[in-house]
Design brief:
The structure holds two protein chains of two kinds. Chain A is α/β, with parallel strands linked by helices. A five-stranded parallel β-sheet of chain A has the order 4-3-2-1-5. Chain B has one domain: Hypothetical Protein Ychn, Chain: A (3-Layer(aba) Sandwich), CATH 3.40.1260. In chain B, 32% of the residues lie in helices and 21% in strands. Chain B contains four helices and five strands, in the order E-H-E-H-E-H-E-H-E. In chain B, helix 1 links the parallel strand 1 and strand 2. Chain B is globular and about 35 Å long. The chains are: A alpha/beta, B alpha/beta. The interface between A and B is medium-sized, with 26 and 21 residues.
């Protein structure tokens, strides 16, 4: 079975532009990529937030109230719900004075089985090194 | 012969990045490679017909049409286009409009992917 890993690496701020939203929607679209592939082919997505991109992962977004649009928080939770590995760079989280308590670490209310992972940058590098393609948003 | 997939998320006008995408695609095609271009976000506007040429801006419609005629596949994100009021009937003949999973499928079969992000 041919499986290819695609790493979606996000370093852009939330809401300032649509870039991080497009990273999330493209990553989630991996759930339907099979319709374009052969029976034994598929894609494994990995979503990694680095640099200013970790600010996408702060919980309790109010995008719906403020902008009238879906929040990136809901997209991150949908990614977890669809079993997409979500990695958040530990060093950058510390750099912004954040802790795991302030981040979107799970989507329990949606029934997601997996959680976000706060990991050293080396772990994200390893994911990039082992990916077939890197999409840097 | 290899396959190159280029994801282009930057503006058609106001950025020279899209020009770079078109020139790179042209160069790769001349070397005999297959090329897929995925247009998303503001990049979708490259596939809209009726672009008017001004001396102050580069104009890519003629070049990109020639590239498509020469075998390059250009596909725009349908949702990104619709959000910009750009509908199916506005699409340049021979270009495609698909959902985002098409880009991932193109990446799957590509030997190299060049993802050029937006602003």
């Amino acid at each position: 079975m041919a499986i290819k890993k695609i790493a979606f690496v996000v370093d852009k701020l939330p809401y300032k532009t649509e870039t991080s939203r497009l990273a999330l929607t493209h990553a989630i679209s991996s759930q339907t990529v099979e319709i374009h592939l052969e029976e034994d082919e598929n894609i494994t997505p990995v979503l990694a937030f680095v640099g200013e991109g970790v600010l996408n992962c702060i919980k309790d977004h109010k995008a719906s109230d403020v902008y009238g649009i879906t929040s990136l928080e809901s997209h991150i939770k949908n990614a977890l719900l669809t079993d997409i590995k979500v990695l958040i760079c530990e060093e950058d989280v510390k750099r912004f004075g954040l802790t795991a308590d302030s981040l979107i670490m799970d989507a329990e209310e949606l029934g997601a089985d997996i959680t976000s992972e706060l990991v050293p940058f080396d772990t994200i590098m390893e994911e990039m090194n082992t990916a077939d393609h890197i999409l840097y948003f | 012969m290899s396959k190159l997939t280029i994801g282009c998320f930057s503006s058609l006008v106001g950025s020279m990045t899209t020009d770079f995408v078109v020139k790179l695609a042209e160069a790769a095609r001349k070397k005999g490679h297959d090329v897929d271009i995925w247009l998303s976000g503001n990049g979708t506007m490259l596939s809209k017909k009726g672009q008017r040429s001004f001396k102050d801006y580069s104009s890519l419609e003629k070049t990109i049409k020639e590239l498509v005629a020469g075998g390059i596949n250009v596909t725009a994100c349908e949702a990104c286009a619709e959000a910009r009021g750009y509908h199916k009937e506005d699409l340049i003949d021979g270009f495609g409009r698909k959902s985002m999973d098409w880009y991932l499928a193109s990446c799957f079969s590509a030997d190299r992917v060049l993802h050029i992000g937006g602003e």
